[in-house]
Amino acid sequence: MYIFGFETYGGPDVQGFHRVPVPTVGPETIRIRVVAAGVNPADVKVRSGARQQGFPVVFPMAMGREACGEVLALGADAPAGIAVGDRVFGACAAGTGAFGEQALLSAASVVRLPDGLDPLRAASIPVAAGTAYDAVEELDCGKDDTVLVLGAGGGVGVHAIQLARQTGARVIGVASAEKRVLVERLGAVHVASGNGWEERVGGQVDALLDCVGGDVLAQGLTLLRGTRVRSIADPEGASAAGGVRVTRRRTTEVFGRIATMAAGGDLEIVLDDPVPFEEAGRAVARVEQGHARGKTVVTFT
Ligand SMILES: NC(=O)c1ccc[n+]([C@@H]2O[C@H](COP(=O)([O-])OP(=O)(O)OC[C@H]3O[C@@H](n4cnc5c(N)ncnc54)[C@H](OP(=O)(O)O)[C@@H]3O)[C@@H](O)[C@H]2O)c1
User: Which of 142, 147, 188, 203 has the fewest CB atoms found within 10 Å of its own CB?
Assistant: First the structure.
């Protein structure tokens, strides 16, 4: 089978298609025929070698950390109620990737695709929507809060806006001017990014979710009243203001809750135009340029 990935660390020039054996299912994994796989900034960080501490890579390594597809084989510890032929989604097993004709999912993360949720949106849940869900829960927002989301139009931001709004909070989303309509449609007040954005926010905020890092985070912290801050882009930057790293759960239970919300119309999984597997490099490039609009998904026929 073919994967899109890399066999040495580096820039976009090291990525390409590789012919590899079909992965062997282990006790804690489920092998799927991939229908859709989400693209995330983490894929670029892993390819670059920046994640060598703590992120196992086996060359040639398929890119991608999340997928939806049809179950082909089940490990002994697969959850009850999942069978060969079911459509499921979840996070990739450690040391494996998603951009391949077949992929291994972590059995502890797998959810059966509910009615009303398509495979492209399901494939986008584990990394971006899942992170938004964990972060918003940790920020513990409510109706008396104003929540500031930096990078509000990207993969995590578009879902964080909606989840924070569901707590009753007022949400301000900082994103480029092109994303104003999107950010407003999802329920946030849009503030255009770029020079002077922090003055345009117009006051202090009670909680801050940062998806950008660096100077943008530092400027955001000047608006924060208290210590309710999480940065997924720059956790160290947030720790100076009392923030801690978002604890990712990546469980069947959490992904199942998000899938139920999405299937029921209570959470919009925001997709950019899908990209066919044959053009996976274009999908990665779209995310790598740093100005993604919602989620990019690679599709397989
Ligand atoms: N720890 C975890 O588990 C975890 C999980 C997911 C993501 N992350 C990390 O979190 C970060 C964001 O992830 P993502 O999936 O949301 O990325 P993404 O889809 O690439 O979105 C990032 C967004 O930030 C916006 N942005 C860029 N520069 C900006 C600026 N100066 N001011 C305001 N917005 C700006 C971009 O577009 P515009 O500039 O056009 O608005 C884009 O919409 C990445 O570093 C990623 O690796 C960590």
Answer: 203
Question: What DSSP assignment string belongs to 1-42?
Answer: -EEEEESS--SGGGEEEEE-PPPPP-TTEEEEEEEEEEE-HH
Q: Which amino acid is at 167?
A: T
Q: Is 220 in the pocket of ligand 1 (CB under 6 A)?
A: no
CB 138 within 8 A of CB 167: no
**Residue 56: how many other CB atoms lie within 10 Å:** 12
Q: What Rg, from alpha-carbon coordinates, does the chain have?
A: 19
- Cα–Cα distance between 188 and 205 in angstroms, integer? 14
pTM (whole model) above 0.90: yes
Ligand 1 atom nearest to 235, measured from its CA? 1
pLDDT at residue 117 is higher than 90: yes
Does the beta carbon of 232 sit less than 6 angstroms from any atom of ligand 1? yes
d(CA 27, CA 246): 28
Residue of the nearest CA to atom 25 in ligand 1?
151
Say how far apart CA 102 and CA 71 lie, in whole Å.
Answer: 10
CB of 270 within 6 A of ligand 1: the answer is no
191/189 Cα distance (integer angstroms): 7
Phi-psi region of 149 (alpha: psi -120 to 50; beta: other; left: phi over 0): beta
Nearest to 163 by CA among 137, 181, 184, 200: 137
